[in-house]
Structures are given as C-alpha cells and as structure tokens.
Amino acid sequence: MASITIRQLDEGLKQQLRLRAASHGRSMEDEVRTILRAAAAGSAEVAPVRPSPRRSEPAAVEIAVPSPTPNLAASTAMRRILLIIGGGIAAYKSLDLIRRLRERHIAVRCILTAAAQEFITPLAAGALSGERVFTNLFDTTSELDVGHIRLARDTDAVVVAPATADLMAKMAGGHADDLASAVLLATHRPILIAPAMNPVMWARGATQRNLARLLDDGVHTIGPNAGEMAEQGEAGIGRMAEPLEIAAAVEALLGDGGERPLAGKRIIVTSGPTHEPIDPVRYIANRSSGRQGHAIAAAAAAAGAEVTLVSGPVNIPDPPGARIVKVETARAMFEAVEAALPADCAVFAAAVADWRVAAPGHEKIKKQKGKAPPPLALVENPDILSTIAHRKAQRPPLVIGFAAETENVIPNAKAKLARKGCDWIVANDVSPETGIMGGETNSVHLVTENGVESWPRQSKDEVARALVSRIATALAAGD
Ligand code: C5P
Question: What is the 3-state secondary structure (H, E, C) of 324-364?
C-alpha cells in the first residue's frame, strides 16, 4: 500500500486530471480512484458514470493506492456471473450480494440500468466487484472494447437483482433499447431474476402475465418475499430476496460448474425453535432465529446434497434447494425427522424446547379474579438428537448436535457429545453479550472424539459452508 498526494503531481498532469475529473463530474480524488480501479481491472479507460454535482477540489488529498486487485474474471477456473442491477430501492442490497458472491469465489461483473444509478453508483458496484461496471449501450469505448454481445456470452449466468416490474416487462416483451435489456435478449446463459416491487405492482395482472411468460421462457426466479416495504405502512409480497438467498440460488443455478461434494448424499437438518402450546393462543418458545440451521441446509443443498430441512416457526425465508417440512412442536419435529430417514448425515441445529405443557388447554385459559395463576405442569419432550444417535437401525453415519451454552462451553460440549451419543458437537457461547442468538455471526468450536477445533468468529453462512465442507470430507472418507 503506497501513498501519494495530488499536490505532488506535476502541473501538466494535474491539469489533465482536473479536466478529466470535471468532464466526469467527479472530484480529482474520485477520478484517480476510478483510473486505478480500471487499471487494476485491465483497462486504461473507465465506464461512463452519471454526472454528479461537482465537488470542490481539496487543497491536498491523500490517496491510498491499493495493490492492484487481481482481475477475478480473468481466472478461467472461476465461475462468473453478470449481475444486472435494476432501479429500485432494493438496489442497495445488490451491493451486499456482490460481496456474498465474491465470498463464494464467484466473479461478478455488473451492469447498472439508468434507474439503478438513481439509487447506487457505478463506483460502489465497481469497488465491490473489483471489475469494470457497464452502464450504457451506446458508449463507444465499451462497445469497441467489450460489446454487449460479449457481455451477454462471457458469463456462466445472468442475475437480475432487483428485477423491477419494468425490467421484467422488457424481458417478457423482448425489448433491447438499453444495455441491460439488450444483454438479456442476447444471452443464451441461464437467467435468474430476483423481483422487487410494491405488492400492488407485483400482484397486477400485467406483472403476473410477464412472470408467467418469463417462467415459460426458462427464466429462474428467487423471491419476492413477503414483508415490510421501504414505503412506510406498505407490506405484502414484493421484497427482494435477501442477498444470502440469492447467492445460494446462484450457486444452485451454477450447479455442475461448481463443486458438488455432497452430490448423492441425503442430509437432514433441524432448525429454529419449537413452540409448545399452553392453550390455543399461548405457547412456550425460545429466541432461536433459525439462521444457522437454515444456512446449513442452504450450504448442503448448494453442495449437491438432497436436503430435508425440518424447521420450527421462524421469520426467515426458506433456503433454496431444500425440501422443507414446517413444524411447531418438538414432537412434530421428531416425527418429521424420523420420516426423513434414512440419511447419510443429520445436523440437529434446532433449539428444541426441553419441556412441553403436560395438558395444554383446549380453550384459552382465563384469568380469574382473586384466584392464583394456574400451575403449568411440564413434561419432558423427546430428545431428537439423542434418540436418533442411539438408534440401532437407520442411524445416519454422521450425527451432529449443537450445544448452545452460556458458560463452560467446551467442557459442557464434551460431556454432551458422550451423553447424546453423537459424532460431533458444534458448540457456541450464546450468553447475551455475544449477540449470537438471533444475530448474523457465530463463533463455534467443533468438538469431535479427536479433540476441539475453535473456528474464528464468522458469519453464520460461513460457519455453514465450513461445516458442510467438513461433512463432505467425513462422508467421502467413510465411503
Ligand atoms: O440438551 P441440549 O438442548 O443442550 O442439546 C442441544 C442439542 O440437542 C441440539 O443439537 C439440539 O438440536 C438437540 N436437541 C434435540 N431434541 C431435544 C433437545 C435438544 O434434538 N429435545
């Protein structure tokens, strides 16, 4: 990492930089950054950028010069996608999607529609993708250098996120009046769209007709999800799928191009909390979000496994590629797991309630003035992990449990490994100050008969992929 200041440049160079920055509506500092990024991506020129109000030139600017990032797309072994970012508020999530795809070693090249540039900048997309960003069908430099036909072909798949109602209409109608639609018409690669729009727009006949036509044309879709809209007071179906879901769908789409070390394997995953009824309206529950279990199901499916996810009640989207059995209670979860056997591996990530109410009320239990609250007699729920791990018949060759502890994490996990009869325990500290319960990251210890491995704190998604990779190695060794 070297460091230069614009003040150190000679006058001629400074003047050229000033003119160039002014013509692009950028500050001199931004112009230098753009030139460096374009150079790192292997081009001396840069994609045109929508003019923005000119900022005043700083007297002296310190510019950190990064060591050139490798042009990811240049690596032929690497899978690559073309990401078309449409103009909707969800465009900001596409910046995170770029990160998520690159974490998975997928090179990303971006096209931003004119409307997308009202929400995010090509500079942001370029900085995250490490690649030149394309915006304009009629840009001479881009057309001579790469060309929309090459953009359409030089990729393993095309992803449209957010896919606005307008972009979907253009695709369905075969329009080609801007770079995004021309590329979509010219590509013979698989296309995945992540629609995002207001629920009324989504439900409209026109959008649904366009969707039907796109599905007919073999276009893949992910989402939209139900939930709150960016507009205040609006809710319904129309939220763009989350970046992790889209990334998993991209991996599933790239399929055989990627590694599928769990192809041919059956995996059962439990996830989320259970709800144990007190009466028809009340229940006992816990704070589990299901994020870790769902991420494991998605990672296993992306690795080619046939996954059955048995999920308690959660507020997160279904992971793509898995068969999902939704349950409420521990007993229902147990039955669903048994029904999913045989399997090569079972991962019990659910936070199953230890107890249920012995005799839940058939009607809502009423508060009675002057009377003590009703006693809640509890009985123990079946221990799904332990029962499956101790089965004589159809015991999956690899049984993995989780241990959420608030103290003595490793000693407790070791004891649990022996008591439950499982092969591995993934242990973590869920004391409130860690923020793990319901949070995005996790810091786990893998406890096996061979010892304890402590993994660094990472996203639940990364934990899932690391675990799936270990499962693949173990199952391959057992074959
Ligand atoms: O006993 P404890 O709840 O700490 O054990 C945690 C592990 O056991 C997790 O893998 C969890 O999914 C599993 N478990 C289960 N059935 C239960 C209780 C826990 O499968 N009734």
Answer: EEECCCHHHHHHHHHHHCCCCEEEECCECCCEEECCCCCCC
Dihedral pair phi/psi, residue 317, rounded to 5°: -70, 155
Residues 6+ apart with CB under 8 A from 182: 137, 148, 152, 176
- Ligand 1 centre to CA of 354 (Å) is 8
Q: How far apart are CA 224 and CA 245, in angstroms?
A: 11
Tell me the CA–centroid distance for residue 416 and ligand 1, in Å: 9
One-letter amino acid of 423:
D
Please give the CATH number for the structural domain made up of 260-358+377-478: 3.40.50.10300
- The reply to whether 260-358+377-478 shares the fold of 74-255 is yes
- How confident is the model over 17-63, as pLDDT tens digits? 776 666 555 566 767 777 776 666 654 333 332 333 333 333 322 22
Note if 408 is an active site residue.
no
Q: Cα(2) to centroid of ligand 1, in Å?
A: 52
Mean pLDDT, residues 398-405 taken together: 94
Q: Which CATH number fits domain 74-255: 3.40.50.2300, 3.10.250.10, 3.40.50.1950, 3.40.50.150?
A: 3.40.50.1950
Residue in 472, 462, 466 with CA at minimum distance from that of residue 345:
472
Q: Mean pLDDT score of the chain, rounded to an integer?
A: 84
How do strand 2-5 and strand 62-65 relate by DSSP bridges? antiparallel
- Using a 6 Å CB cutoff, which residues line ligand 1? 270, 330, 348, 350, 352, 354, 381, 383-385, 401-403
d(C-alpha 388, C-alpha 449), whole Å: 18
| Domain residue limits, the chain | 2-65, 74-255, 260-358+377-478
**Ligand 1 mean position, distance from CA 85 (Å):** 42
Instruction: Evaluate whether 30 touches 123 at the Cβ level (below 8 Å).
Output: yes
Q: Which atom of ligand 1 is nearest to the CA of 401?
A: 10
Which residue has a Cα nearest atom 9 of ligand 1?
402
- Which pLDDT value is given to residue 53? 32
Ligand 1, atom 21, lies closest to the CA of 383
Residue 402 alpha carbon, nearest atom of ligand 1: 10
| Neighbouring residues of 321: CB distance < 8 A, sequence distance ≥ 6 | 248, 249, 252, 298, 301, 302, 307
Q: pLDDT tens digits, residue range 124-182?
A: 999 999 988 999 887 766 666 567 788 888 888 999 999 999 999 999 999 999 999 99
Tell me, what's the pLDDT at 19? 66
**Ramachandran sector of residue 37 (left: φ over 0; alpha: ψ -120 to 50; beta: rest):** alpha
The single residue of 286, 315, 412, 428 carrying the catalytic annotation is 286
